[in-house]
Amino acid sequence: MLGMHGTFRANMAVTHCDLLVAVGARFDDRVTGKISEFAPDAKIIHIDIDPTSISKNVRVDVPIVGDVKNVLSKMNDLVKDDKGAWKADRKGWLAQIAEWDKTHPMGYRQEKKGPIKPQYVIEKIAELTRGDAIVTTEVGQNQMWTAQFFPFNKPRTLITSGGLGTMGFGFPAAIGAQVANPDKTVICMAGDGSIQMNIQELGTAVQFKIPVKVAILNNHFLGMVRQWQELFFHRRYSYTCIDCAPDFVKVAEAYGAVGLRATKVDEVEKVIKEALKVKDRPVFMDFQVDPEEGVYPMVPAGQPLSKMLLV
Fold first, then answer.
1. Does the domain spanning 118-288 belong to CATH 3.40.50.300?
2. CA–CA separation, 58 vs 16, rounded Å?
3. Is 285 exposed, middle or buried (0-12, 13-18, 19+ CB in 10 A)?
4. Could you tell me which residues are beta bridge partners of residue 48?
5. Fewest Cβ atoms nearer than 10 Å: which of 3, 120, 140, 270?
């Protein structure tokens, strides 16, 4: 992943590459950062079925209008390298990417006696489901941490509203995904702000016995906006603190769903295992996480991808 919360290696690779092939990308502002310094030394090939999308945000050198499957099939024929010459040419470049990854890996620190880190919750869910789950997200920090720390290895297993920013999307999306895939584990990664946008759909899920699992990364804030206020407004938190959130366990139980809570690190795995056993109704998992944990790397607004704030 590249962009505002992309990996260090991805952002540096885009910044220093000499050729960028964009397949169906729209080059939104969360990906490009400062457009004038986006992939500044690269020739850009842009493939899209919609001609109006090409050079809309970033000027490209080679526009290709067509169906991606057809275009990539033809490109494969053009770039076959039977003699292995490209492998030698790329050796230094791949070594540079590996070095960026080694020096600035994606990470966090989870203390055994410290507050629960949201990244730890996501990694534990991935571990206990063996990555075999359909994951939906709400919007904000929960969305970015999911993209960073859940190892997706199958297509169509991440359902998110992306840059549209539609808080409240994740829970109904999870319900729909579960109905369409009754034998799959479906998990909604949510924040305590977003989940309240469509929390009433618990009634739908209970009535129709839809066993979606909702992992609420409960930091008592609208976390993404809080992070900006911390970094750029000296922690003058305005309209981001959620002091009057409901007890999500009691809300779940009031609807006839299952409510579980983890307040300590050693409770996280127990809660997830208990939730995964439930097959006949939805489950809310209320994880009380570190209230001021941030999403990093982060590219500040208006800055190029190379100017990342790191942990």
1. no
2. 16
3. buried
4. 65
5. 270
Going by C-beta distance under 8 Å and a sequence separation of 6 or more, which residues neighbour residue 241? 220, 221, 226
Would you say domain 8-103 falls under CATH 3.40.50.1220?
yes
Token reading at 172 = 């109904």
Q: Are 204 and 210 in contact (CB under 8 A)?
A: yes
212-246 pLDDT, tens per residue? 999 999 999 999 999 999 999 999 999 999 989 99
Domain range list for the chain = 8-103, 118-288
CA angle 190, 191, 193 (to 5 degrees): 125
Instruction: Tell which residue, 250, 175, 168, 238, has the closest CA to residue 208.
Output: 175
What Rg value do the Cα atoms of the chain yield, rounded? 21
3-state secondary structure at position 45 = strand
Query: Could you tell me which of 179, 147, 150 has the C-alpha nearest to residue 161?
Result: 147
Predicted structure pTM score: 0.93
Give the C-alpha separation, 99 to 74, whole Å: 33
Q: How far is CA 5 from CA 12, 147, 224, 259, 310, in A?
A: 13, 9, 11, 31, 10
DSSP 149: H
Q: Flag whether pLDDT at 192 surpasses 70.
A: yes
- Helix 118-128 to helix 265-277 angle (10° resolution) is 40
Q: How far apart are CA 38 and CA 223, in angstroms?
A: 28
**Residue 78, amino acid:** L
CA-to-CA distance for 142 and 129, rounded, in angstroms? Answer: 18
Mean pLDDT value across residues 37-56: 96
